[in-house]
Specification:
The chain is α/β, with parallel strands linked by helices. The protein has 17 helices and 16 strands. The protein is globular. The structure holds flavin-adenine dinucleotide.
Length: 455
């Protein structure tokens, strides 16, 4: 029998991971929608990678046509309900709102959520499958890029099969983006919309293991590679395989689909890296009950890649930051469990080939942090073996494409989403992956065109 105290603790942890933002009420949505200036040539549309006609969907909210509003959003962005929650709107649509100059920007993300939540709750049919054109498309990966491509292709009448390695579709939406920002039911609804259009999603099917790339190339008229990126790379330091050293993506995944217990991280946690994934790791650790969570970064605050609002969010959560600090050695106890991390202070030296000042060790500045867990968040690896199994050219695991056609070095294969996301492009985003998925679908349709209209 489970002790009562344990139940209360589990319930508390679950509450910690409940979505933070509260949905707008009808009155709040109407009031906000009526503040919109409905700009001609609206800058918010230009700032949206999926070009959602934002003033148009806001006007529909103001006039009470919520279904029309949801359709406008979802037509432009098949992942529009997720994006209402996860888009860095301050950097995109809301950052471009003309009202920034006089008062405050329209809460576009909240309004988008208001309309798409309505669609989710009312279970209305938004789009229809196109009449079959007899052509078959395979999509590898069911994240935002794969799902967006699938929806559009199905509306054009293609028979679409998605191969997905995980037990559930949705990619990082279901496995990687923290639950308190994106609950899984939202992603599940978007997946359902795609399945309702006749798309066959074969989960638990890892291409390259359960089915070969050659098999897929032989059986389908076109292929879209949308596998995203892999796990967090190795730090390359002693002790990093000890128990208690976590890959940030696997760690967040556990908080989304695993059972929540305080034991996962204990009380003292260091997070290595200073991008948005590091912030996610740190804020999840806080929600699991860690009392001292510090982000370690070998450069300074100025060079960190996390968005400003993410940085502020982490600080509000009580996360500390140790700048110019690099990990040197993970220290374990006799049971093979992490008990500390030896670190060294850094200083910025001459610029490297990328133009950024290179961090250098300050000799003799080593110190030890006593820890219960370490979360690594220093980027993501690439699926080079799979990319090469398809015979595609790539640059360090980033698939080479013609940027206007998303076409790879194999004319039959298109690639989109994180699998084509390269260094120096800022932070990867759901909304960009969604747009690239649409782009790939439109190009394939243009190339294989049959006389069918989009439904
Ligand atoms: P993914 O979402 O990674 O989907 C790829 C899919 O391919 C996965 O389901 C995977 O299982 C599958 N796959 C891989 N290999 C195979 C194979 N061999 N066979 C079959 N299937 C395979 N972006 C935002 O806009 N806002 C955020 O708040 C945000 N938070 C993030 C937090 C974290 C921790 C991370 C890691 C990323 C975050 N991102 C965020 C980025 C965003 O999640 C990605 O840019 C986006 O999911 C990319 O979509 P995708 O479809 O290309 O790839």
């Amino acid at each position: 029998m489970v002790p009562i105290q344990e139940n209360a603790m589990t319930a508390q942890l679950k509450r910690n991971f409940v979505e933070m933002n509260i949905r707008m009420t009808k009155n709040e949505a109407l009031e906000e929608a009526n503040r919109c200036l409905y700009c001609y040539d609206a800058p918010c549309i230009k700032a949206c990678p999926t070009s959602i006609p934002i003033p148009n969907f806001i006007k529909k909210i103001a006039s009470g046509n919520i279904k029309g509003s949801a359709m406008t959003i979802m037509e432009a962005n098949p992942i529009g309900a997720s994006c209402a929650r996860v888009c860095p709107t301050e950097e995109l649509c809301e950052g471009a709102c003309v009202l920034n100059a006089s008062t405050k920007p329209i809460k576009i993300g909240h309004l988008q959520r208001y309309a798409t939540d309505w669609a989710m709750d009312s279970d209305v049919e938004l789009f229809k499958q196109g009449q079959s054109n007899g052509l078959k498309i395979a999509i590898v990966g069911s994240g935002p890029a794969g799902l967006s491509a699938a929806r559009e292709l199905s509306r054009f009448g293609y028979s679409v099969t998605i191969f997905e390695a995980e037990a559930k579709a949705g990619g990082l939406g279901n496995y990687g983006i923290v639950s308190f920002r994106l609950p899984n039911n939202v992603v599940d609804w978007e997946i359902e919309q795609v399945i309702k259009l006749g798309v066959d999603i074969k989960t638990n099917t890892r291409v390259g293991v359960d089915i070969s790339a050659d098999d897929i190339l032989a059986r389908y008229d076109s292929v879209i590679l949308a596998v995203g990126m892999g796990s967090v790379p190795k730090l390359g330091i002693e002790g990093e395989d000890l128990a208690g050293v976590h890959d940030a993506i696997e760690f967040v995944k556990q908080t989304k689909i695993g059972s929540l217990t305080e034991e996962i991280v204990g009380k003292r946690v260091a997070v290595i890296g200073a991008g948005n994934t590091a912030i996610d790791g740190a804020t999840c650790a806080v929600r699991l009950g860690a009392e001292q969570v510090e982000i370690l970064y070998r450069r300074t605050e100025k060079e960190m890649t996390a968005y400003k609002f993410e940085y502020e969010f982490a600080k509000q959560d009580g996360v500390g930051f140790k700048w110019l600090t690099a990990p040197k050695r993970v220290i374990g106890d006799e049971t093979g469990k992490v008990v500390g991390l030896e670190c060294v202070k850094m200083q910025l030296g001459e610029p490297g080939v990328d133009g950024r000042q290179r961090p250098e060790e300050v000799k003799g500045s080593e110190f030890v942090m006593e820890l219960d867990a370490i979360i690594k968040a220093i980027g993501q690896t690439r699926f080079i073996q799979l990319i090469e199994a398809f015979g595609l050219q790539h640059t360090n695991g980033v698939v080479d494409i013609d940027e206007t056609t998303m076409q790879t070095s194999n004319k039959k294969v298109f690639a989109c989403g994180d699998v084509v996301f390269g260094n120096g492009q800022g932070e990867a985003m759901v909304v960009t992956a969604a747009q690239q998925g649409k782009d790939a679908a439109y190009i394939i349709h243009e190339r294989l065109r049959k006389p069918s209209e989009i439904a």
